[in-house]
Amino acid sequence: MDEESPYLIETLTIMKSTVLILALFAAPIALTAPAQLGSLSSHAKPASYVAYTDLPQTVAANRRSTLEVHFRVLPGYHVNSHTPTEQFLIPTALTVPAAAGVKPGEPAYPAGQPYSFSFDPKNKLSVYAGDFIVKLPVTAAPGAHSIDASLRYQACNNASCFPPKTLPAKISFTAK
What we know:
Layout: H1 4-38, E1 50-53, E2 58-59, E3 65-73, E4 78-80, E5 93-95, E6 102-104, E7 113-115, E8 125-128, E9 131-140, E10 143-153, E11 155-156, E12 165-175
Parallel strand pairs: 2-12
Antiparallel strand pairs: 1-3, 3-9, 4-8, 4-11, 5-10, 6-9, 7-8, 10-12
């Protein structure tokens, strides 16, 4: 063994100890940093961009009548209309299954509002923003009814669009 070996062994031991100590101190920081940095994000995405309101409604029994299905898009967002202007955009669609004593018809959607992004003002999209109402024709037997419908939509803000979502919409009404 030469004279440098004891110093080399001592230096390596000190380096290993230093790395171990740094790792022990850095681990708690590394584990908590993502949670802290996540809270710095500019906007947290809401669970749903659209709200449904089930309002009491009465229709004529055994005759074709129209229900109004009320939705509200959260401020700062819009959803593609039922007839988007681009083929790749996902249309808003209300799915209404038949229910006991109720025969639903095809939903009638409102016209979309024109919208364009600031980076492409000439390209007009067809969207819903704020409140919108889908009209639903039904023929129902007398009595209280409930239909478990769902609204599929794609929401966007002024910078990007988000994955499609499906919103349950329990439509309650009485036929007299």
